[in-house]
Design a protein that fits this description.
The protein has a seven-stranded mixed beta sheet, with helices on both faces. The chain is of the alpha+beta class. Helix content is 53%, strand content 12%.
Length: 288
């Protein structure tokens, strides 16, 4: 299949060089855009090195065919013909992430937290800010995941069901050290706490600072596969952080927390996306 694809690409290239048409130009632009998105998706990951290796393999395959190196070309032909399966195996996590991002395309707001017909959830924001700042001051570790359009039903099932209204005393009590539910993540949906002590998959990104703890890796892991927003309180330093879209924003204070949460819970906000602004100016990963 890949050999046929290679032949079609060669024919297209020759057609464009000899007598280009509008359709050929559009076709090339689309392919260039897809390649760009692929490179963007795999940038700063182990997959980028695999892509370089595959690129070198195709170059050697083409050169061996052009020079008439039949033995080498025959061996490479066997590899190329099974390339589709190899690509799926090597890029399993990246392909899954890309498909999830496509599925979320066009979804810019939170469906499940819309309550009161677009009114800002001041009480919820206040309770969350109070809980996070209190735990930060006392250096109590916490991991809170706010569900958005991507459902977290499988994550909720891994923990203990609570289904209670959000309140600062309840959140602080759950994460109090040596209590049954303090390990794991708390899942929020709208104005309710759905579950606690939930298990999250850790991020496999090798670029994450080794100084960051398990909570931060778990927060980045779920942010890589869903559109959730995760808030973390470091047990060692008390630093409040946020993970979204595979990126970590650290050193949040009460004011920035309130702005972030108001942006999430206020469905009528049509201004600048504060979360994107924060990510653009995020600090480098440091000690957890």
């Amino acid at each position: 299949m890949l050999q046929q694809l290679w032949q079609n690409a060669s024919n297209l290239l020759w057609s464009v060089i000899s007598s280009p048409t509008i359709v050929d130009i559009i076709d090339i632009l689309i392919v260039a855009f897809l390649i760009y998105k692929l490179l963007t998706l795999t940038r700063d990951t182990r997959a980028s090195q695999v892509l370089k290796g595959l690129g070198m393999l195709f170059i050697v395959y083409w050169v061996s065919d052009w020079l008439g190196l039949k033995a080498l070309n025959w061996i490479l032909n066997l590899v190329v013909n099974s390339g589709a399966v190899v690509i799926v195996v090597l890029f399993q996590s990246e392909l899954r992430r890309a498909l999830e991002q496509i599925g979320r395309a066009g979804s810019t707001r939170l469906d499940r937290i819309k309550s009161g017909e677009g009114q800002a959830q001041d009480s919820v924001v206040g309770e969350l800010v109070a809980a996070l700042t209190n735990m930060s001051r006392r250096r109590v570790g916490a991991l809170i995941v706010i569900e958005q359009r991507t459902g977290l039903g499988d994550v909720i099932q891994s923990g203990t069901r609570i289904d209670a209204e959000i309140s600062a005393p309840l959140i602080e009590n759950v994460f109090e050290p040596n209590t049954p539910l303090h390990d794991g993540a708390m899942i929020l949906r709208g104005k309710r706490i759905l579950a606690a002590a939930c298990i999250l998959t850790l991020s496999q990104d090798t670029g994450i600072s080794r100084e960051l703890g398990t909570r931060h890796r778990a927060a980045l892991g779920i942010s890589e596969t869903t559109d959730s927003v995760t808030l973390i309180v470091s047990e060692e330093t008390g630093i409040i952080s946020m993970a979204r879209n595979g990126r970590l924003t650290r050193h949040l204070d009460a004011r920035s927390l309130r702005q972030i949460l108001e942006e999430i819970y206020d469905s009528g906000n049509s201004g600048t996306n504060l979360l994107s602004l924060l990510f653009t100016k995020r600090r480098p990963n440091g000690q957890a």
